[in-house]
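Our collaborator T.R. sent over the components below with a one-line note: 'Predict the complex.' Nothing else. No constraints on interfaces, no templates requested, no preferences about which chain binds where. So this is a plain run: every listed entity goes in together, and whatever single assembly comes back becomes the starting point for the next discussion.
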Amino acid sequence: MPRGPFQYLPFLRRRRAERRPVTAPSLRTRTGLSTRLSENLIRIKETVAGSNDIMIREFKAGDHRQVGAAIFYVEGMVDNAVVNDEILKTIMIEARQVHSADRTPSHSLLTLAKESVVSVGDVTITGNFDELLFHVLSGNVAVLFDGYGEALVVNAKGWEQRGVKEPTTQSIIRGPRDGFTETLRVNTALVRRRIRDPNLTVEISHGGRRTKTDIAILFIRGIANPSIVDEVRKRLNTIDIDAVLESGYIEQLIEDNWWGPFSTIKDTERPDDVVGTLLEGRVAIMVDNSPFALVVPATLSSFITSSEDYYFRWPIATLVRLLRYGSMFVALTLPAFYIALASYHPEMIPTELAISIAATRSGVPFPVYVEAFMMEIAIELLREAGIRLPGPIGQTIGIVGGLIVGEAAVQAGIVSPIIVIVVATTAIASFATPSYSFGLGVRILRFPLMVLAGALGLYGVVWGLLAILVHLVTLRSFGVGFMSPFTPARPEDIARDSLIRLPLLSFQRRPSFIEPQDSDRLDDERQNDRVKGDTFDNE
Amino acid sequence: MTPLITSSRVVQIAVLLLIATVVAGCWDREEIDNRDFVLSTGIDLAGPEDVGTDLGTSTSPDGEPISSSDRKLRYTIEFPIWRALAQQQSGGDGSSGQRFTKPAQVISSTATTVFEAGRLMSLRVHRRIFFGHMDLLAISEEVAREEGIAQVVDVFERDPELTRRFVVAITDGEARELLLLAPKEESFVGTYVKGIIERREKSSRMVNGDFNRLLISLHGNKSAVLPMVRVAEDEVVMGGAAVIKDYKMVGKLAELETRGLLFIQNRVRGGSVVLSDPEKPWGDLVFQIGSSQTRVSPELRDGEIVFRIDISVEGILNEQRTLNILWDEPLIEQVEQAVSGRIDHEVRRALEVLQNVLQADVMGFGESLHRNLPDVWNHVSQDWEETYLPGVKAEITVKSNVRRIGLIR
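Returned assembly:
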C-alpha cells in the first residue's frame, strides 16, 4: 500500500474511476411470498419486530367470507379515508360476488380486486416479500389474500406534509411564489405543471441502503445533452451510503470537486428556476425529503442568475446582474483591500479620506487587521446566532449586536467607525448573491484574503485573487467549465446572458456551452413581421 | 547524459519561484494612524536662532566643538494631529473657540543637507514620517536664490514614497512662516495652496507648480518657472512666478508678465483682459478669456532667428462701465483690436524680461528650435541663453474674437 500523507484518509485514495456502481441489494433478492396468509403475517411480524406504527388488520373476503385476508400499512403514512372506503369497504362488501372456488387467473380474488374492486389509481401486484415491505414502508397499503402467493399494493399515501410555501432562501419580487416542499411527488408535479411536454422525463432511483430515499432525475429528452444525463445516472449509481437525508448528501457525493470552497452543483428552491434550467438543457436532481433541487451542470454565472432576471425587462436585469457581480467582488475583497490600504499603502487613499481614516483610528489600540478580524468574527457570530434564535428574538439580537454593540465599540475606542462601515458593507454585499450556497464560498474565502492582506499588503491580495481565479477556471461541473461562458469563451453566450442580459428576442439559441441536443429556442420571424407590418393600420 | 529539464530542476525552479513570491511582499506595514502624513514641507536657510539647537554638543579633546554647527538649511514639516482632528470631528460645534486652532503640528530641524535634515526629524517626531500625501513643497526665495533648488528637488525626486503631483512654490518670506499659517476654512496650508493653484485658470496670473512638470523642465534645460506665494497677515496670496535658471532663482515675473509667458506656452485657459479707455464708448470693459490657442514656429530669416507667435483668443464680454450696448460690428471689432493689443503688450513685456533681463529660456524657444530647425540649433546651442536668446526676434500676431457680448435685452 502506498504510504503518503493521506494514508489515514482512505476515501482520498479511492479515485473516481474505481468507484463501482452499487445496486440496492435488498430489492433484488428473490424471496417470494408464501401462499398461506398466516405464514406471510408471521413473517411480516417477525421482520418489523413489534413496531407499533405498523398496522396489520385481518378480515374475511369473498362471497361467504371464507377467504382470509389482511391489509398491512404504516399508520400515519396512509390516507385513512382511502384505506377505509376504497380498500377495506370495497373488498369486504363488493368482493362477495366472487366465487371462491373459481381459481382461474381471470377470476381470482386478487385480479378481480385489482381490476374491478379497489377504486384507487395506482394498484400493482407483487409476489416479492422485500418489495412488498419496501412499498409498505414507503406509505403504500398491501392487501394479502390467503391462498395467493402475491399481494396487492395500493397507493394510498397520505401523510401530513408542509404545503407549498414561498421559498425562504430565494425570494423574488416578480414571479411565481411557490417553492419546493419535502415531498418528492409534489415537487415533480410543480415542475410538470410548468412543462406540458411528454419529453420531460422523471427517472426515479433509490439512494441510501437504509433510507432507500427516492431520487429523481429530471431532464427534457431531445434538449438535454445525453452524455450529461448519462454522467448523472452513473454518478448516482456510485452512491453507496446508508442514508440520504437531504439533497446536500447527493450534492457532496456526486460533485466534481470536494476540496474547494465553491459548490459545483446549484441548489434551488424554486420550481421556475428548475424549469428554466431544464429548458437550457441542464439536468435536475430531486431528492425526497428535501425542498432543494440540484441542477447540473452549474456555472459561476448560474449562481449569479436569479429567475427574476428573465421576468423583468432586460435593462434592469442587466443592471442587477452587474450589481451582483460587483457585490460578489466587494463581499470577497473589501476588508482585505481596507487592511492592505490602511496598513501598507495609505498613499493610494485620497488624501482627505486618508486623513479622516487616520483621525478616526487614532486611539484604537489594535492594528487594522486585528480590528478587521474582530469585527468580521463578530458579524459571523451575529449571522450564526441570528439563524439559531427564534424569530422575534433574532431581530432584537440583530439590533443589539449590530447597532448598539457596534456603536459602543466605536465609542469605547476599540474599533474605528470606518471598519464598522467596511464590515457592514461587506455583510450586505454578501447577501446580494442570489445563491446562498455560493455566497458561503465567498464568505469563507474572505478570511484567507484578509490574512494575505495583513501579511503582504496589496501584493498578497492580488496573489490570493489570482489563486482564486486559477481555481475557478480549473473547476468543472459535469464536463462543463465552471467559468463558462467566459472561459472557454463563447462570445455569443457572453453577449446574450452572462454579465448582461440582452432582450428576450435575442434568445434564439440555448446556451451553447451546455451543448444541448436541440439548440433552437426562439424564432423572431413573427415578431419581426409584426414590427414591419404595423398592425394598427391594417383596417 | 541527463536531460536538460529533470524533475529535480523543476522542483528547484518551483521553489525559487515560491520564495520569490513570498519574499517580494510588502514589508513596510505601518498602521495608517502610526504615520504622520506630511502635507507640506518648507525649506529655509537656517538663521542664527537655529544654530546650536542640538542637545548633544560637546567639546572634543582638541578643543573643537563637535556639533553640526555649520547647519545651513532648516527643514520644516506640517502634519495633522490625529487626536485634534478626531476631537474636531466628534466634538462638532461644541467649543467654538477651539474650532479654528490649527489641528496640525509644524516642526523644524536643521542640517547641512536636505536629506540629513529630514533624517534628523526622527529626533523630534515619534511616528513614521510619511510623504505619500504631500501637497506642497515650499522653498524660500533665499534658498532658491543662494543655494539653488537642485539639491532640494533631487532629494524629493529620489524618494519613492512621493507622488509627483504635489506643488512646488517659492515663498516670498520664510517657508516656515507659511507652514505655520492657519487658514480659516482649511486645516492645512498644503491643501490650501494646492487648491489655489488648481483654480489658477480663473486669472492665469500664476504658473502651475506641479513637481513632475518642474522635473521635466529642469532636466530639459535647467530652467523653470515656479509659482510665488506670500504670507500676508493671516492669508495666503499667490501670483506671479519665480524664474529658475541653472537651478537657481534669477528673478520674478509680475502677474501680467506671467500671463504673457503663459500665452507663449499655450497654457492660458481663462482670465480677463481689462480695457480702460474713457474716450471709447465702453469706458472700462472686461473681456473674459474663454479659450486661447498659441502656435510658436521658429524661422531663419536673413541669418536671424525669428519666432512667429500666433495667438488666437476667444471670449466674452463680462463687465462694462457704460450701458451702451455694443451691438454693431465695427464697435466689436474695435474691442477685439484693443484686446489683441493688450495681449500683445503682455507677451512683449514677458519676452523682454525673459530674453534680455533674466536671459532665461523658460518659454521653451530652444526646444522649439531644436525640433524645427535642428541645424540652426546645433549652431547656437552652446551659448544659447546668454548670447543668442536676447537677439531672437519675435513676431507676435494676436487675433481676438468676441464670441458673445454677454447681454440679452
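Summary for T.R.: The CA atoms of residues 256 and 300 of chain B lie 30 Å apart.
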